[in-house]
Batch of 2 targets.
Target 1
Amino acid sequence: MRTEDLIEQMAATAEPVRRLPAPSVLALAWLVLAVALVSLVVLWQGWRPNLAGQLAEVEVLVPWLASILTGVLAVLAATHLAAPDRSARWRWVPLPAFALWVATLGGGCFAEWRESGDLTMAPGMDCLPEIAIISLPLSLLLFGLLRHAAAIRPVSTAVTGALAVAALASAGMELFHHADGALSVLVWHAGAVTLLVTGFALVGRPLFRLIAIRKPRFAR
Amino acid sequence: MAAAQNGDQVAYAALLRDLLPYLRAMARRRFRQAEEAEDAVQDILLTLHTVRHSYDPARPFRPWIVTIARRRIADRMVRLGRRAANEMLSALDDDETFSVPVTNSDMETAVQAREAVAAVADLPPGQRQAFELLKVQGLSLNEASAATGLSVTALKVATHRAVLALRRRLGN
């Protein structure tokens, strides 16, 4: 088909469209829903025993805050990367917070090992249902909001989106799930995050192709 | 563009017509063959149409369309590079030389893919091997795994990295 004819056909079928909200508005809306969802799970599961005492410890508080910061920056990055006119450099924005989170968790492990001389690790898979209940709806929602990224930056959007979901799920878990020791948290939380993010780096492109808004077909 | 988002078909057609020479110039800088450049322009237009709700009228239009255009051009170059590398390598495997004009002109098309072939050759050895086995020779993951002794996952990762590297190099 001649490009000029394609243009005429595109214009002739162009219905009014609803504009997407600005990336930061999308991110904020998603964060509100994330907080609501985590609150629901906390209501259902109950607060973790001695939560206030736990969060008063710097070794717990700093990584927890860093995980929240990672989640917030990562969802901002994802919504900006999905918009064609925003800088691709957004992909680096959550990195410092993520590094701080992993580093402070690692530091906690080291401190624990120096104090007690051994590191115990709890089997972590018992929290799988809670993880799934938080992260599945959050992922579906986020990737639904970001479908338009398929055409632009599928991989970096998928990776930062996955990081946002995983970091906030981890931060939420800390509120109700009793994890034993810094090593468990490092292995199960940061490990799961790394696994998820790597996974999404590999499947980002096909995933977004799958959920992409379909291109219109014009007669040839 | 803001008018087009509101359903103003006349404004939309006018915008696209104005955009056309600019997109063509962008595409022709990348593709030597006019048909390839024109296909890239149509890709860009279709993507613009599909994601036109993502444009924010409060912001400049140019960065928005330039990102979309670059993306579609880069994607097409990678696809083209794969196909061309395939043709070139199979041409190199032949011992005979041809003097028939038709085959010569085919060879010339393949020579245009030199850039792509060089890009493949410059990949790190592991990535190049995986890319050539899976994407050029068309082996299945299991066959390639048996041939190299590498795991399926390692091959997938290496191929993926190779594609990314090619996309980066040919996309710029």
Target 2
Amino acid sequence: MIGRILAVAGTEFRIALRNRWVLMATLIMVLFALALTLAGSAPTGALGVDMLTIAVASMTTLSVYLSPLLALMISFDSIAGEAERGGLALILSYPVSRAEILLGKFTAHLAALAIAMVIGFGAAGLVTALLGGAGQASLIALLRLVLTSILLGAVFLALGYALSAMSGSSTAAAGLSAGAWLVFVVLFDLGLLGAIVLDGGGVFTQHVFPWLMTANPADALRLWNIGAADSVAVASGLSGATSALPAWAAPASLLLWLPLGFILARLSFGRVEP
Amino acid sequence: MRDDALRIEGVSKQRGALAVLSDVSLVVRPGERVALLGHNGAGKSTLMKIVLGLVRASGGTIAVMGAAPGTVAARRATAYLPEAVAFHKALTGREQLTLFAKLSGVSRTVVAALLERVGLTDAADRRLGTYSKGMRQRLGMAQVLLGKPSVALLDEPTSGLDPASRHELYAIIDELAAAGTAVLIASHALTEVEARTERIAIMKDGRLVADDTLANLSARAGLPTRIRITATDAEADRVAEALGGTRINGRTVDLLCQTSGKLDRVKRIMSLGDAVTDFDISPPKLEDLYRHYSSEKPQ
């Protein structure tokens, strides 16, 4: 079983390298992370935290947008596209299970994402540390950001496979993935914001809203990184939202979404008749 | 060795209100080459996908070397060549075949030999995006040879190939069958399967309308043998009248007869002496048979 997963993973990783996906994703991460870090480095003195802490706060927001986007970009075509080209029928005629194919693709795509994240956030972290110094706490915060971003990417890889298996064609899969990104990253937050404004600080804002926010994996990443380090919370100005929740809530959400995404992906892949 | 490598019994497939397959039964024995003929949409590809376990049948049973479709035992025993297979452009032929070897648990040392067998040694390390249709099809055939399958399902293996590539492909198919593989070939290329298969199965609208040897199918269809006689200019009319044929131009007379009456006709042609300068006998072609069985109402 491991042999077959690794065989699929090796092939998929080679494809990701050859079609320049790894290169493009890494470039995007490096550019955005550096730009945000350098642009957002002004208010250090006023808040009394080091420059890397500020950088981690800005990059957390970046990760909320980019991790799901990159993950969906690499995963949306993996089932619908292969089914369209006829490759899926052939590979499934071999003694390899659908779960093994999914895990193989996942391993390769996660490795590709991890490379982009580590290099992107790492480069930005290094530049800030050299410019403005970094303490132990801020280094841990950076490490936490990298790991949780990879975890968020993993969740959206699994969701991407599920959407890909649900759509009949690559084009439909691309549309569904774009829709999913909009909902999770933009519309969900807008909806919550609207609800808070209407509620005017009532029961919803105090007791329901924090839980709803945590339930979204993209927001869970934000809460996890901000909640875990007081200094980052100060830097981001979001300390209020995190204090209403127990510390385990955001990590639990992200960690639950991963198997949930996988089950969804496996079930919808199971219904595909290539 | 089993008597049936592939046994299909009463298989049907409904897609909504449409019956894609109805009550199809077919047996392919080890070493046998069976042609599965039919128009597009007759259900050939669907039948193959059901045998592979990729598509679920609505009814009936299938045994691949005694195992149910889609089980590990059945998948190990089966090789498949999809119609117009498209591999991933970024991989090389060797990488693609190595992946398949690993998935089927075959030692990767066979990869080089198989590439050589299908004539892709020189192109082995080139990207598949640069391969021609014939080269992709040959790579597809190389993966069929992996792991010495008991059953090979080939969906339109020669479509879009030039005559030389077709010839090579059929040579490989012959080798497979000689080694004991049961081969099922879906095709519309009627003339080429004629000489290359032991048995012919014809599908029409999801039903199997014929399944027999070419000789038996011809006899049962009762299609006439055509004799074309060339007479001398002056005698053409007399020849046509004497033999009961039709004169189609100045010197040519066409005659249709049953296969059993062929010898008798030839004797009568010979008795006409110098009036006949030449004659040709054409037995019913696969095309005629195919037209006969695929226009026939199912019994």
